[in-house]
Design a protein that fits this description.
With 456 residues, the protein is α/β, with parallel strands linked by helices. The protein contains 18 helices and 16 strands.
Length: 456
Amino acid sequence: MNKKDGVILIIDDDEDVLITARMILRNHFKTVKTESSPKTLESNLENINPDVVILDMNFKAGATSGNEGLFWLRKIKTLDPDVHVIMNTAYGDIQLAVECMKEGAIDFLVKPWEKEKLLSTVSTVFQLKQSKKELHKLQSTSKVLANDIHKDKGELLGQSAAMQQVFEGIRKVGATDANVLILGENGTGKELVARAIHHHSARANQPFVKVDLGALTESLFESEMFGHKKGAFTDAKEERMGRFEVANGGTLFLDEVGNIALNLQSKLLSVLQNREVSKVGGHKTIPIDIRLICATNKPLHAMAQEEAFREDLLYRINTVEIELPRLADRHGDLTLLAEHFLKVYAKKYDKALPSVTKATWKKLSDYSWPGNVRELQHAVERAIIMASSDTLGPEDFLIKKTEKPTGIQPSLNVEEMEKQTIIQALKQCKGNLTSASKTLGMGRSTLYRKMSKYGL
């Protein structure tokens, strides 16, 4: 017989009732616990997290009023409003039953009960609890994913050798459940890579939940990530699932992970290690099963050396690293991407697909695109909107008239010269900070401080 994965707590001062109920229910539920006194209620609610409580109405010898049961029922609903309670008494009183229902009881049993009556009542109440839990999860998931569903997520395109390496990495890591860290400058397509990994995984039909940690304040971090109980703080008017719980079974994508404050990094690490969360204002732990993908444009390894990012958290999130190339390093992809965006925005704004002059292509090719693919996308969109003819000329693209940097740009400004020198060293060493610091003749920590100073 398959037992239901439920926890039943029975509280009654009659030892015979406890023995009988346990014998009947233990064949149908995985956990059945009995208590002869309600005084252990609080610890039981916290430690075993019961789905259903069967609560006696009277505990003192000769008592028949049911006031004790009502008192403990109110206590249960205060401690955990989600617990489903069945009241149990030897004195069948309709008025008492109505009073119990008003206070939050789900059902009412009159002793002595038949085996079938006990089992059917408990099973029905347990199933109701499971249905409400599933409904709450669906509602919470729907709220989180509603905005995401209608977003234009774009396509991950590329024919360059640099992007072929990225695609190969996606295919390999997608088939696993490994944590992935995606590195790259702003606008290189880190979210698209995260979605592609999810799409190639066994979790593809489960939620993909994105959290922009760069836009999340410290005060809201725990509530957003772990959820909160009703009344946990001033604005907590209803219970809410956190992003970890919403993503359960699927993929959680933490964008801008390098922006998490140090004091919050330890909390994130604890959740990832223990695979469980506790809601703000709650005591129960909730098991989670998620695939974690993180992304950042910050030098996390250097930050770990400077103790600005926890090294143990870095090791936890970067089982596999995928580094995205700058658009300037994706040789041959600019034309492919620009033509794609031309088609997308011509259709979006109901315009004819324009042609592009050779002079325009040269202007686009000569530009360094510091904002990467996102900057190109916005430039094409604006050109489509503002164009006065079906042919796009150089004047339709309002970008700086600069060429791709081929060396350190001359400047009389010492700081600008230093910045350009660091940029060139990083390019030459392919982003390896240890090699770059040696090339520049400075310590790694000094290099990191200067990178932070210049926003690199």
